[in-house]
Amino acid sequence: MSARIPSVLEVGLSYATEELGRADTDVRSADAELLVHGRPVRRVHTEAGKKHYTGVFWSSTTGTQHHYESRLELDRLWLADFDPHVVWLAAQPFWLWGRDGTAVRRHVPDLLLKLDSGSFVVVDVKPAKFQQEPKAAAVLRWTARVCAAKGWRYEVWGGGDKVELANIRYLGRARRQFLRPAGDMEVIARCDPAGRRWRVVRDELVHARVSVPDLCISAMLWHGRWVADLTRPLASSSVVRRREG
């Protein structure tokens, strides 16, 4: 009799929480809600001569800091933080480990995102030129099968539009609440940009004695209450309108 082939749901999964420390389970038993609120399973190191660009990103979605291991991963964090459908996120959320045919795999996905629909997205950030390398491609295919079996969406992200990312980073300056005077935000909440240009809306806010009009406009765009075309560089000529629906 041939040996039973293990299900991908039996792939091992390790995670960490403040209460439990490190915990081991399998994919079948893993609770994504626990994982997305857990601690990183891998510490990001910064050292002299290291090629990777590492650092810490403060997320307005979680109100906490998340470590990233590359500029590309930082870009994906910006997109996740800006996405109104992402309600929570975690970086380096868990280890996967198990057999893949004759190979033994060990892998830490870069991000775990919880969406407002209640579903979860596992994200691996990998430059497009490296995604097709045999070793990397095999790990990504294995991770995709594991996530599909669990019912998690899986994304391999190789980069986004540079203009859109630059716009999001610009708007991100307004995501910290303490930088926005409460009185200013009360005024702008009553304002309808009505498809006018940024500079026209700014002049109206200046007339209304808003102290930081550009920051307030950025905050309305960051939080999705207003919209603008982010496929073009934001400027004083950008058209701003309320989000419909």
Please tally the β strands and state the result: 13
Cα Rg: 21 Å
Structural class: alpha+beta
Low-confidence stretches: 1-5
Order of helices and strands: EEHEEHEEEEEHHEHHEHHEE
Mean pLDDT: 92
**Per the principal axes of the C-alpha atoms, what is the gross shape?**
elongated
Question: Main beta sheet, described?
Answer: 4 strands, antiparallel
Oligomer: single chain
Q: Helix tally?
A: 8
Beta-strand content bin: 15-25%
Distance between the termini: 60 Å
The share of residues in helices is 25-40%
Strand order of the largest sheet: 2-1-6-7
Question: Could you describe the 3D structure shown?
Answer:
The chain has 245 residues and is of the alpha+beta class. The chain is built from eight helices and 13 strands. Helix 6 packs across helix 8. The radius of gyration is 21 Å and the shape is elongated. The N terminus is likely disordered.
Primary descriptors:
245 residues; alpha+beta; four-stranded antiparallel beta sheet; four-stranded mixed beta sheet; disordered N terminus
Could you provide a short overview of the structure?
This protein is an alpha+beta fold.
